[in-house]
Amino acid sequence: MDCSAKIITNQTGRIRFRLNNKKADYLDNIGQQLLTFEGVYSVKTNPTTGSILVLHNTNGEEILKQIKNRGFMEINETDKKEISIVDATRISYDHLDNFVKRYLGGLNIHSLVLASLLITGVYQLLRGNIGLPAWYVAFWYAMTLAKR
To answer: Do residues 11 and 75 share a domain?
Structure first.
């Protein structure tokens, strides 16, 4: 077994592996072997990222079992972790917030949303409360954010 891989995604109908060997001919060879598995109907390799995408119409765990039985690729199960949508959203928000802080001189998303809500409230007052959220709604959201 000269190749180790970690599972990047294991969703219904698709499994993506990231391999330590990024050579195109090696990935194609692994892909051809995976195509012989029952239930696998497509394999796409990407030498740039060292990944293999397996599209299947069977149970993903069954494919993983077949890989282990044939022994041509070692799967690192410790890297396989499921993440909830809440955690994924929080992680994405944190990345975006760090990006905004870095490029806007310390301002964060929280302060930008607060400022935009205050501006929206003033704008609505000046326009006579037409369109967008009502001025008092914008102020309510702004004050709620300001308390945090």
So the answer is: yes
Q: Confirm if 122 and 138 have CB atoms less than 8 A apart.
A: no
What the block records as the tokens of 130 is 């037409």
More confident residue, 77 or 92: 92
Give me the mean pLDDT over the 35-58 stretch: 89
| Sign of the alpha-carbon torsion through 102, 106, 107, 111 | positive
Query: How many structural domains compose the chain?
Result: 2
> Quick one: which of 44, 45, 38, 42 has its CA closest to 67?
38
Check whether residue 8 and residue 54 sit in a common domain. Answer: yes
Indicate whether 96 and 46 sit together in one domain.
Answer: no
Tens of pLDDT, residue by residue over 11-38, are: 888 888 888 877 888 888 888 989 998 8
DSSP assignment of 36-104 equals TSTTEEEEEEETTTTEEEEEESS-HHHHHHHHHHHTSSEEEGGG-----HHHHHHHHHHHHHHHHHHHT
Expressed as residue numbers, the domain containing 98 is 85-147
Same domain, 67 and 11: yes
